[in-house]
């Protein structure tokens, strides 16, 4: 499984951008409500990162990173037979090197320390109810990842997905489809599959493959506890600030496997609080020229696993609108 994740990492990073395809699936009888907006801050604790390239460090340094994210889903059409929404998202993260341990000794490492990595995106979702308890979802989106919001072509990505979902009984729904992604590497395709099963009045199992597996326990009508295994990743354009390293444009890419416990609690009917704690395992981390993949990397990094945490506030669909 880890080898598959490494080999297909670029496609899975694309799936993260199009996560709403699978999250828009039909819910079974669970009372867990969809999120309309979320503000979160997360951090991976201090750990060692090792580089094997003289240009990019050839050293072990202490590192952690902090990420702030906001996303919102604005309903455009809400009918029993048709739902249309627009999701907007913004993410910013920063590497923090050094601390009480070693700091970068190269100009490149210090460059990364000074940069804020940004992601902006817009995603249009269209969901049409069909006969026989089934739905068809279409998703199209645009995103940009980079150190500067100059929308350099090497940081742009476009996503399209179609997804079919069917409720087999009141406690089980399944779905399948595909995702097309276009970025600096080219066009790639990825199959999608979901399985959503209420195991009891308290337990729900949701598989969103190849991204995540969630086992959710309903502590009460106002709180949930979720055991989560999830692939997370990103790919940023570093721009032309690194021409000294023999390339007009560089990208930095990372793929992780996170295992965590998530607690979510109602503050008000529509406003909730979330806290997540878990373990971050890096699967793949590299720098390459724009348009290249892991096998053509200029440098690869190895990282020690480390604990991480996340806090969030999110808005859900008010209960009076949930059938």
Count of alpha and pi helical runs? 4
Structural class assignment = mainly beta
- How many beta-strand segments? 15
> Rg to the nearest angstrom?
20 Å
The quaternary organization reads as single chain
Low-confidence stretches: 1-7, 9-15, 24-29
Q: What is the global morphology?
A: globular
Distance between the termini: 38 Å
Helix content: under 10%
Element string (H = helix, E = strand): HHHEEEHEEEEEEEEEEEE
Give the overall average pLDDT: 82
Beta-strand content estimate: over 45%
Biggest sheet record: 15 strands, antiparallel
Tell me about this structure.
This protein is mainly beta and 323 residues long. The chain has four helices and 15 strands. The protein has helices at residues 2-7, 9-17, 20-23, 107-114, and strands at residues 35-51, 60-78, 82-97, 117-130, 134-146, 156-169, 172-183, 186-198, 203-209, 212-220, 223-239, 250-266, 271-289, 299-303, 306-316. Strand 7 (172-183) and strand 8 (186-198) form a beta hairpin.
Summarize the structure.
It contains four helices and 15 strands. The protein has helices spanning 2-7, 9-17, 20-23, 107-114, and strands spanning 35-51, 60-78, 82-97, 117-130, 134-146, 156-169, 172-183, 186-198, 203-209, 212-220, 223-239, 250-266, 271-289, 299-303, 306-316.
């Amino acid at each position: 499984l880890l080898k598959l994740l490494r080999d297909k990492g670029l496609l899975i990073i694309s799936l993260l951008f199009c996560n709403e395809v699978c999250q828009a699936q039909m819910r079974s009888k669970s009372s867990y409500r969809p999120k309309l907006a979320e503000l979160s801050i997360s951090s991976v604790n201090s750990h060692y990162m090792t580089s094997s390239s003289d240009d990019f460090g050839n050293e072990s340094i202490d590192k952690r990173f902090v990420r702030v994210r906001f996303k919102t889903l604005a309903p455009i059409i809400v009918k029993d037979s048709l739902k249309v929404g627009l999701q907007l998202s913004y993410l910013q993260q920063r590497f923090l090197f050094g601390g009480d341990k070693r700091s970068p000794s190269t100009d490149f490492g210090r460059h990364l320390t000074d940069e804020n990595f940004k992601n902006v995106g817009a995603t249009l979702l269209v969901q049409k109810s069909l006969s026989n308890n089934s739905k068809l979802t279409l998703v199209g989106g645009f995103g940009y990842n980079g150190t500067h919001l100059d929308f350099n072509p090497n940081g742009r990505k476009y996503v399209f997905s179609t997804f079919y979902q069917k409720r087999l009984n009141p406690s089980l729904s399944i779905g399948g489809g595909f995702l097309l992604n276009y970025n600096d590497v080219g066009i790639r395709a990825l199959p999608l599959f979901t399985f959503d099963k209420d195991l009891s009045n308290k337990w729900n199992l949701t598989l969103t493959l190849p991204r995540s597996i969630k086992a959710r326990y309903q502590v009460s009508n106002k709180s949930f506890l979720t055991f989560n295994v999830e692939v997370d990743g990103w790919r940023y354009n570093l721009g032309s600030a690194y021409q000294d390293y023999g390339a007009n444009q560089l990208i930095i890419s990372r793929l992780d496997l996170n295992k965590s416990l998530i607690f979510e609690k109602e503050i008000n009917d529509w406003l909730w609080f979330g806290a997540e704690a878990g373990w971050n395992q890096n699967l793949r981390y590299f720098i390459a020229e724009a348009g290249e993949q892991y096998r053509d990397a200029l440098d690869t990094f190895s990282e020690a696993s480390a604990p991480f945490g996340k806090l969030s506030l999110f808005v859900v669909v008010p209960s009076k609108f949930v059938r």
